[in-house]
Design goal:
The chain has about 280 residues and is of the alpha/beta class. It is built from ten helices and eleven strands. Strands 1, 2, 3, 4, 5, 6, 7, 8, 9, 10 and 11 form an eleven-stranded mixed β-sheet that branches.
């Protein structure tokens, strides 16, 4: 027992493990996540409905979205952004590896007669010959990726965009990093049964990596017959660090906003968004 508790509380190296599929592709947790997506009043898997509608309105205006616009939405979930953008005439591709979320998204698109191509795949592995005017990654998904994965995604953005095409994504700020604290807690059926349909004990270890500006929420789920560990990594950024990442992959920076609804940048905000442009030549 002592050895097991030692394992539960051990601090891994930064981005040592990647377990996203255990959160988004597992039958039980993906069902819970879809329910969070579709709860319009909370912000767990998605922004609340009012924010999404305001965000889409700004995107349509700022990026001049119409019938000639091609958009790819990485981490699209159940299509909350994709469907609204398609209703504005855009040709939308959504990529996500939650089968359950995409089943919902495809059904909703079919009912509305929307032209949305949903691809069930880890977006790190996605490729296509199609080229896009706008690439989106919303809800701070970019922060969950390791430096190597972010480099691969930035390269993918660049490759998949037409010249003059743009990237829109949001990230957590250093102000949010300063508010995080290390902690260790456990409870029976942690998060109201989120992790399993069976009874379990959930252990949460939160680790801060000050030099790298990374936080890890390490969940250890102990059931009677099995145990699993889920690593939820979050990278935190300054404007300068995010700008360097995109410029190193050939992008020019159009600007920064407080959020993906176009609010003016605020250095005290917990999040901010970047708009990066693939040069015309």
């Amino acid at each position: 027992m002592f050895r097991k508790l030692e394992e539960i509380n051990v601090r891994p190296a930064v981005f040592e493990f990647y377990t996203a599929a255990d959160l988004w592709a597992d039958d039980h947790t993906s069902g819970k996540m879809l329910a969070y997506h579709l709860n319009e009043s909370i912000e767990v898997s998605s922004r609340n409905r009012d924010f999404i509608e305001r965000s889409v309105g700004w995107i349509v205006e700022h990026f001049v979205v119409d019938e000639s616009t091609s958009i790819i939405d990485f981490g699209c979930g159940p299509g909350l952004y994709a469907s609204l953008l398609a209703e504005c005439g855009a040709a939308v591709t959504g990529v996500d590896f939650s089968r359950r979320s995409l089943e919902y998204a495809r059904r909703a698109a079919s009912e509305k007669g929307l032209r949305i191509n949903y691809v069930c795949q880890n977006y790190l592995d996605f490729d296509t010959d199609e080229r896009f005017d706008l690439a989106m990654m919303i809800m701070c998904d970019y922060c969950a990726l390791s430096p190597e994965q972010r480099g691969a995604m930035a390269g993918k953005f660049y490759e998949l965009l037409r010249p003059g095409g743009r990237v829109l994504l949001d990230v957590y700020s250093l102000n949010a990093f300063r508010q995080r604290d290390e902690a260790a807690t456990y409870e029976r059926n942690q998060l109201d049964g989120f992790w399993s349909s069976e009874d379990y004990y959930g252990f949460l270890n939160t680790f801060k990596y000050d030099r790298e500006k990374v936080v890890l929420d390490k969940y250890t789920i102990v059931e009677e017959a099995r145990q699993k560990v889920v690593y939820n990594w979050l990278q935190y950024f300054s404007r300068e660090s995010l700008q360097r990442e995109f410029e190193s992959h050939g992008f020019e920076i159009e600007g920064f906003c407080c959020d993906v609804a176009g609010s003016a940048f605020d250095p005290e905000s917990d999040e901010f968004a970047i708009i990066a442009v693939k040069p015309l030549s």
